[in-house]
Amino acid sequence: MGAVTALDDPLEPVLGAKSATALESALGLSTVGDLLRHYPRRYAERGELTDIAGLEVDEHVTVLAKVQRVSKRRMRNRPGSILEVRITDGKHDLTCAFFNQAWRERELLPERRGLFAGKVTAFRGQLQLSHPEYQLLEGDVDQAVVEEFAAALLPVYPSAQGLPSWSIARCVRQVLDIWDEPSDPLPDELRQRFSLAGLPDALRWIHRPDGWPAVQAARQRLKWDEALAVQLTLAQRRKLSGARPARPNPRRAGGILDAFDQRLPFALTDGQRAVGEDIAAELAGEHPMNRLLQGEVGSGKTVVALRAMLQVVDAGRQAAMLAPTEVLAAQHARSLREMLGDLAQGGELGGSELATRVALLTGSMPAAQRKQALLDVASGAAGIVVGTHALIQDRVSFAELGLVVVDEQHRFGVEQRDALRTRAGEDVSPHVLVMTATPIPRTVAMTVYGDLEVSALREMPAGRSPISTSVVPVAEKPAWLDRAWQRIREEVAAGHQAYVVCPRIGDDDSDVDVADADTDDTAGSARRGKSAKGAKSGKKAAKSSESDGDRRPPLAVTEVAALLAEGPLAGLRIGVLHGRLPADDKDAVMRAFAAGEVDVLVATTVVEVGVNVPNATVMAIMDAERFGVSQLHQLRGRVGRGSAPGLCLLVSEAPAGTASRERLDAVASTLDGFELARLDLELRREGDILGEAQSGRKSGLKMLSLLRDEDVIAEARQTAQQVVESDPELTRHQGLAAMVAELVDEDRAEYLEKT
Ligand code: ADP
Ligand code: MG
């Protein structure tokens, strides 16, 4: 040990094999830089005990607490003893249990303070730390920890079983004692302009601050680096894709678009008209359009997209529309054909002279049908091609692809959009229009969609009906559930239709079908659903099981459909829709539902996006707390699409006062998608939003918050734009180029492979 050490040096020579291996296997940290970028999650202040009431079940935590009392008892059913140590923050307490370790009684003396680390569990309403590790700060203890603790702020690291926070702190200290301070990648000019700390100082202060001001300065600098790296990447992408040539599609008088406009049964809203003009101008340009169209569910995005596609068809090219699922692709194809009428009957008897064809192309189509569709696409007979993302990945050959429309895809990331841009030919890019119904907070627009121009449809077409939303709290008011089924019967009696949405498909517990498990809570339930496999007995499994807060598996489509058919909805025509049905069945069910031949559709989130059956007026979402905020908002947008008002019932067993319940109350209280998007952002881990490529463990965003750091992001965006304007390849900014490389490299390659 001892030589000066650079950031990309391995940890082993510095820390020894044992610590290096532990850091690598528990946290994936293998270089000096990795370790220094493993920032403390928070800091314990000298003299202040950790707030125990704020701990979350299932989290691995480190708490600073005081021993309150210790008791020993024999195990009831087997030999051995349990030492129960009650620790406290002065207000709340936590039990630590040690099996057959009675000797610990001698050091865990009442009133002694220490750090305790372990996973939080709940047992009979009482929080516990299971198998905790601890480090006492008084008595016969590790002097290094005590010294560290004598500092004003004690870093608390994200830790793992077997690698407590204080061990990480010790490793960091060892590294900081001998490291070779890295040179600062940020030019002095920028550092001064934004009053930022230097990188070596920032790294030192984040781990070993001498007070809160040092923490603040370090955080500000590290956030800035992250924001700038992201924004530089995006600015480069914008520059690069904007500079690529695209084929112009000027508007043509007397073409299919004009014919369509003449047949349109309604007037476009002002928003549709304005956005339409922007798009028309860009489609006519010689560089590719890269535009995001944001508009609430039902705001009429599809018409806007179709008009764009027709302009491209008028120019003799093709437009592809991508949907996230085959069900949606099929539905899009159907509704585009309907809207177009005889304008979609190209080459058929009775088709308009101007007509084109809409081809549907999905993986599970019968071979003959697929072959015909492929032919139509290759020959150019189909001006519009609808499919899933496989359409782009499968290298389907187009006659001349001019525009790609991506519908309703929150999971369609920056990388996939990049892949699209090479699909019109070697050196031309297609124009790209991405549509989303999820309102996008400004920070997200600047990051996740930072390579796109954003337009929005803010008004709803006239004649839209309101949607009202209520929470049905099954735990407190079981009778309300009966009332909910009653409401569905009433709607059906009045000639309307209903959705019942469940989180799981059924038959196989591993099939938790919450597509967008976007809260920790949901992921947790998925896990619990799996672990409870053995305990589940088929039917409703409604009794909440076992002692330690284990929950029953989420309700399943197949089971709920059967129960409803036998019980509360007996006599109604019930259909079932989920991702595991063969494509033909899915299509048949959707068709039947759209035709009014099915009264109640019991489904997973496959109905989340785009499904448009205006006669459906009520939706019951079962186990609603298992869905994310945005998802609930999307789901309820499926009702109230016709002239009758819509009703959405959020059925949940979550008790009043819990975070889950508050989330549902929030969804019920507002239809303001923007407000909900903010709430969602607050609840999601930010990595989920940025996509894995940009939240990678090693190089991603650790410090930057999309919720709180709008100012930093905006400044960094502007700065990045300026830098890239004058130095697109960053050849004169080597430090910045390295930052960008660090952000995008390996993780991105990995991500591209996965999708
Ligand atoms: P989105 O895709 O934004 O959720 P859609 O494009 O599916 O919304 O439109 C929802 C419904 O509203 C469709 O039935 C569509 O025909 C209708 N619609 C679209 N624009 C208008 C308009 N300007 N006036 C009246 N109805 C419209
Ligand atoms: Mg739509």
Automatic annotation (TrEMBL):
<feature type="domain" description="Helicase ATP-binding">
    <location>
        <begin position="282"/>
        <end position="457"/>
    </location>
</feature>
<dbReference type="Pfam" id="PF17191">
    <property type="entry name" value="RecG_wedge"/>
</dbReference>
<keyword id="KW-0378">Hydrolase</keyword>
<dbReference type="InterPro" id="IPR014001">
    <property type="entry name" value="Helicase_ATP-bd"/>
</dbReference>
<dbReference type="Pfam" id="PF19833">
    <property type="entry name" value="RecG_dom3_C"/>
</dbReference>
<keyword id="KW-0067">ATP-binding</keyword>
<dbReference type="GO" id="GO:0006281">
    <property type="term" value="P:DNA repair"/>
</dbReference>
<dbReference type="InterPro" id="IPR033454">
    <property type="entry name" value="RecG_wedge"/>
</dbReference>
<feature type="region of interest" description="Disordered">
    <location>
        <begin position="510"/>
        <end position="554"/>
    </location>
</feature>
<feature type="compositionally biased region" description="Basic residues">
    <location>
        <begin position="527"/>
        <end position="542"/>
    </location>
</feature>
<dbReference type="InterPro" id="IPR011545">
    <property type="entry name" value="DEAD/DEAH_box_helicase_dom"/>
</dbReference>
<dbReference type="InterPro" id="IPR001650">
    <property type="entry name" value="Helicase_C-like"/>
</dbReference>
<keyword id="KW-0347">Helicase</keyword>
<dbReference type="GO" id="GO:0003678">
    <property type="term" value="F:DNA helicase activity"/>
</dbReference>
<keyword id="KW-0238">DNA-binding</keyword>
<feature type="compositionally biased region" description="Basic and acidic residues">
    <location>
        <begin position="543"/>
        <end position="553"/>
    </location>
</feature>
<dbReference type="Pfam" id="PF00270">
    <property type="entry name" value="DEAD"/>
</dbReference>
<keyword id="KW-0227">DNA damage</keyword>
<feature type="domain" description="Helicase C-terminal">
    <location>
        <begin position="480"/>
        <end position="682"/>
    </location>
</feature>
<keyword id="KW-0547">Nucleotide-binding</keyword>
<keyword id="KW-0234">DNA repair</keyword>
<dbReference type="GO" id="GO:0005524">
    <property type="term" value="F:ATP binding"/>
</dbReference>
<dbReference type="InterPro" id="IPR045562">
    <property type="entry name" value="RecG_dom3_C"/>
</dbReference>
<protein>
    <recommendedName>
        <fullName>Probable DNA 3'-5' helicase RecG</fullName>
    </recommendedName>
</protein>
<dbReference type="InterPro" id="IPR012340">
    <property type="entry name" value="NA-bd_OB-fold"/>
</dbReference>
<dbReference type="InterPro" id="IPR047112">
    <property type="entry name" value="RecG/Mfd"/>
</dbReference>
<dbReference type="InterPro" id="IPR027417">
    <property type="entry name" value="P-loop_NTPase"/>
</dbReference>
<dbReference type="Pfam" id="PF00271">
    <property type="entry name" value="Helicase_C"/>
</dbReference>
<dbReference type="GO" id="GO:0016787">
    <property type="term" value="F:hydrolase activity"/>
</dbReference>
<feature type="compositionally biased region" description="Acidic residues">
    <location>
        <begin position="510"/>
        <end position="521"/>
    </location>
</feature>
<dbReference type="GO" id="GO:0003677">
    <property type="term" value="F:DNA binding"/>
</dbReference>
